[in-house]
Amino acid sequence: MAISSVQSELPVTPPAPRAALHPVEPPPAAADAPFWRAMRGLGREIDLGEVRVESASQLHQYDTGTLIALQAGIYRYTEAVDLASKIVDRATNAVHTVLSSGR
User: Fold this and answer.
1) Are the C-beta atoms of 72 and 3 separated by less than 8 Å?
2) What pLDDT does residue 95 have?
3) 37 contacts 103 by C-beta, under 8 angstroms
4) 6: pLDDT confidence band, cut at 50, 70 and 90?
5) Could you tell me if 53 and 80 are in contact, meaning their C-beta atoms sit under 8 angstroms apart?
6) Burial of residue 49 (number of CB atoms within 10 Å: 0-12, 13-18, 19+)
7) Residue-by-residue DSSP string for 50-102
């Protein structure tokens, strides 16, 4: 049994769009850049993970396949959040280094 086929059985609805405080639009030349696509994909994965976690609390029937799929989905979610936190940490350190070297 493939995990991806079991994941489709979970009651996951796409996340509702959230209004960002300051929506960030890429410059036209950067819209198809690999880094920008990766960041959009990471954001979608985090949004889906939040929906999975929320829907897991509403499950009334627990069978083995559903629990394994839920575990795999939550693992992907935690990996996405971990990657996002590392990117923010590295970017913060880079900005700090640039600002410190200007003195």
Assistant:
1) yes
2) 92
3) no
4) very low
5) no
6) buried
7) HHHHHHHTT-----HHHHHHHHHHHHHHHHHHHHHHHHHHHHHHHHHHHHHHT
